[in-house]
Amino acid sequence: MALPYRPNYQGSGGPRGKFIPRKEAEHRINHFIRVPQVRLVGDNVTMGVYSTQDALKIAQQQQLDLVEISPQADPPVCKVIDYNKFLYDKKRKEKEMKAKSKTAELKEIRFTPGTDDHDFDFKARHAENFLKEGNKVKAYVQFKGRAIQFKERGELVLLKFAERLAEIGQVEGLPKLEGKRMLMVIAPKSQKKKPSSGTASAEPQG
Known about the structure:
By secondary structure, this protein is an alpha/beta fold. The protein has helices at 52-61, 83-100, 117-132, 151-164, and strands spanning 37-41, 48-51, 65-70, 77-81, 106-111, 136-142, 169-171, 176-178, 181-188, 199-201. Strands 5, 6, 7, 8, 9 and 10 form a 6-stranded mixed β-sheet that branches. A hairpin with a 6-residue loop joins β3 and β4. The longest helix has 18 residues, at 83-100.
């Protein structure tokens, strides 16, 4: 059985005696809408410009709230909805969007020109897991001292690495030398590219 309309002046106002704390009132609703007229939209209403009092009566008749959704419009746009449900749906959608927008990380894999087969396989398996999780992998060969003379070896290591990951990763560019590092970035094939938000290193140094 529906309860009679009873605006709550302690909070932001609402039908059915529901208390909506002022800190949650992201919109002006019901008797807090002070303008003389509004443009009314919503389900089961005749859209158009109404006096605010008439629009409020329409909301009362449906046991719903009159909510100002576009205060900058002329006249402001109001919608006849259940404000509690509106807030709940809004928070749920924001939570879903936040979960979907989780950014991928840029994972680092470090090699040396003399990386042996065992170490190479170990790091390749890590890279496969990173790519499957939707992260990018930055593989680099670190040259120390005169090892820079053997940069061709570093390039071969990176190309071999890219070949190993070819089924699940795609190279974003050929190996390039930056200071004493030769690096290459590999992105996951099965997912859209995501912006990098951080750097992590997860492998034993070799």
